[in-house]
## 1
Amino acid sequence: MNVTIVLFAAVVVLATVQVLVRTLEIDAFGPMAWTEPAARFTLIVGTYMGAAVATRNREHISIRFLNDRLRRRWPSLGAALNIAVILITLAFLAVALYGTVQNVASGWHTSIGGLASVTAGHVYLGIGVGLTLMVLYELGWLWSALVNLSSALGSPNAPGNPEEGN
């Protein structure tokens, strides 16, 4: 079962319980104030895990018009552009991951309120796991893009190849 599905289901259950207990004033459950921060932190971590899934499946929003046109006319240039985009993404993720590691270390014992056993470091750790997965998936896509560039450069029949006479 996908972790992101479990996290999303937990957010739905926590938010529903919170609304029902507050709206219907059900005293049998006791104070349920903890459900609001639990739902919030679960949603934050779930967002980063979902972003990792989107990275794995190449489902992030992107404008592919230029790359698609380049690939048709000059496959090697399109493949090189794809590699450049992946490298920029990896640079961004590296900075984000570095900052997250710093926040995990500095916030490990920092209470964030609402949940006594959860600290800011715990939440940042969940974010860090999602970012690490994104880095790993992007590295896999980088390898694939390098293989594609290699085949585009080595293919004598590729459109736009100088030997073909284009």
Note: The two ends are 50 Å apart (CA to CA).
## 2
Amino acid sequence: AGIVEAVGPDVRGIVPGDHVVYSFVAVCGQCPSCAEGHSNLCDNGAQVMSGFMLDGTSRIHVKGQDALIMAGLGTFATHSVVHEWSVVKVLPDLPLDKLVLLGCGATTGWGSSVYAAEVKPGDNVAVIGVGGLGSAAVQGARLAGAERIFAIDPVEFKRESAQKFGATHTAPSVEEALELVMAETWGRGCNKVICTMGVGNGDMMASIMAMTSKRGRVVVTNIHPWTEPSNNIPMIDLTLRQPFEPLREPPRRLAEQLHDRRHEDHAHDRGIEQDGDRHAEPEYLNGRVLDGDEREEHGDHDECGSGDHACGVCHSEHD
């Protein structure tokens, strides 16, 4: 997130002085995916993963050579050049160090519940992995009216935090959660199961399926290793439970929720509005704010799953 200092001659809707939140998925609003309401799958925006600008050039150079920047953003620098499709304008009186979470993790987790899972009032929801993504998914499920929210994570601190965000039940493992879910739902299972565990494990899918109710939905937000060729899903469950709704929607729905920026301006407005009413709490996803060299040291905290969801902030000289 940051404040715009200059814009190109063809930029529309963004002017110097605007406060903006970066989105790691650029959204053109014009391609078939965007027109169908799936801007998180923007056809044009997918090009930012090449490291170049959307026109195929680079605005960043190191020793005369083009430099590739992550998602076309380069957010660890004090200044960056980004495409207008990669920013969302926000109100200037809102704190950027809180809103920065809406550019990726908070929106992804929240959208996993609200858009991908389509949680409805009265639903039973399980969220597997309640770090940054999962905590936002728990909040999304709560705001959508879920009756029971099962937060599953081996780290006690994260389970305790999830209860503050709205989880009604917690468990340290999928196996223990399965028993709890069946006891609390009279054997029906969860209408929605959301996987936000960071790196997924295909061997867990059988237990996840067993936790899912008939006509329920499984949303896989976490990534899986490229080397994982398959997962363990009992095929009979696809027939009896129909968790992926194969007659109405393709199984692709499972992989869709890497980042939900469909109607992102609207999604940010909803999240910010709810935050203003103290309903959604993105700032509590931050354990602390890192500055300068601390960002490099923080990698160890992420690897051990400490739940310390830190936010790196770069300050310009004139700040």
Note: The chain has two domains: 2-104, 109-254.
## 3
Amino acid sequence: FFHLYECVMSVQKTRLSYDKSWEHEVENIHHNCLKPVLRQYQKQSVAWMLRQEKRRKEEEDKEGVHPLYCEVRLRDDNILYYNR
């Protein structure tokens, strides 16, 4: 298990090393309403979660349909939304 973890971490570190905005996102995580000071790994986790949500939102905006549904166009040009 530890070997798998090390491999995944290596891939992640390599991928993030090319992304200069990542460091900026991590450092700007703290909010004034948040009393405790986050540790570095906590900041990274929050930044990752925010990126996931942002990416999902961008995909939804691009597609126009929630990821759990697909658009079905009928022959008479009616549109139905099917739950995947």
Note: The beta strands are 69-73, 79-83.
